[in-house]
């Protein structure tokens, strides 16, 4: 695939995603702010907050960041990989129509990658080094082992791809899923010959069929989309308006200098009518 096609494709879908995030921001800010009154005193102390405005900044940033990370993962998984790099996304409908993919062994397979030379690889996509816990690593080993045992005539190469980070920084769970025990012994099969792990640049180079500059092309597509959409000014207006609304909503609790403000906040949030 030519470099400009990757940049243009990523640019298109990143632009779409940024506009979706802006819409999500508007929807979020039009709703109500849900606070956990028991953790707010800790947040003020832990983050050295001195005003309600500083607290709203922290809360809004952390709340939106969760959505950003989740949404970006979907952008990579559901748009950029299939639409730009031509992978086949294994959604429910595709799996049902293409045996043996409907088998539960393929539940953790996200994409099929077909190369120009006819080679086919399965891809299990992960966001980062902490995505896989021990139980998941053992389950992946079992599922991959079943694929290689019962369906190797269809698929005998599996890749676990991590789209940011480095191979050497991954946790030992990525070894365990391939059947490598380090320290504690787990009941896993050695499938290292057929299952490979690629993280960060290694992943994008693999996805780009060996093009070592693939990650830079993806980044260029994303940054050019940011420049095109120009969200900074509009979003600042929206967030400033939201901060003002929340500050006014909680000024009689978080906005006062009194040891009773935590109790007042608790009552404001928790003391409702009986059902």
Automatic annotation (TrEMBL):
Origin superkingdom: Bacteria
Which keywords describe this protein according to UniProt?
Endonuclease, Hydrolase, Nuclease
Q: Matching CDD domains, A to Z?
A: EcoO109I-like (cd22321)
Any one Gene Ontology molecular-function term assigned to this protein's record = endonuclease activity
Q: What is the official name of this protein in its record?
A: Restriction endonuclease
């Amino acid at each position: 695939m030519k470099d400009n096609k990757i940049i243009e494709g990523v640019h298109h879908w990143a632009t779409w995603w940024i506009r979706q995030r802006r819409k999500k921001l508007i929807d979020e800010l039009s709703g109500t702010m849900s606070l956990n009154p028991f953790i707010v005193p800790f947040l003020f102390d832990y983050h050295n907050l001195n005003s309600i405005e500083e607290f709203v900044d922290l809360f809004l940033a952390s709340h939106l960041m969760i959505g950003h990370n989740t949404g970006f993962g979907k952008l990579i998984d559901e748009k950029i990989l299939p639409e730009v790099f031509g992978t086949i996304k294994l959604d429910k409908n595709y799996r049902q129509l293409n045996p043996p993919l409907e088998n539960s062994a393929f539940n953790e397979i996200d994409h099929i990658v077909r190369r120009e030379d006819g080679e086919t690889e399965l891809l299990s996509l992960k966001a980062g080094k902490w995505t896989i816990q021990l139980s998941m690593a053992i389950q992946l080993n079992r599922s991959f082992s079943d694929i290689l045992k019962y369906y190797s005539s269809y698929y005998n190469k599996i890749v676990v791809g991590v789209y940011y980070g480095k191979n050497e920084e991954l946790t030992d769970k990525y070894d365990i899923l391939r059947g490598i025990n380090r320290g504690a012994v787990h009941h896993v099969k050695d499938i290292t010959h057929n299952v490979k792990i690629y993280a960060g640049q290694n992943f994008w180079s693999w996805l780009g069929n060996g093009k070592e500059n693939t990650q830079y092309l993806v980044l260029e597509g994303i940054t050019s989309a940011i420049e095109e959409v120009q969200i900074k000014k509009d979003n600042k207006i929206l967030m400033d308006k939201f901060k003002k609304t929340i500050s006014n909503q909680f000024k009689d609790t978080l906005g006062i200098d009194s040891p009773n403000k935590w109790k007042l906040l608790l009552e404001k949030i928790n003391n409702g009518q009986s059902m």
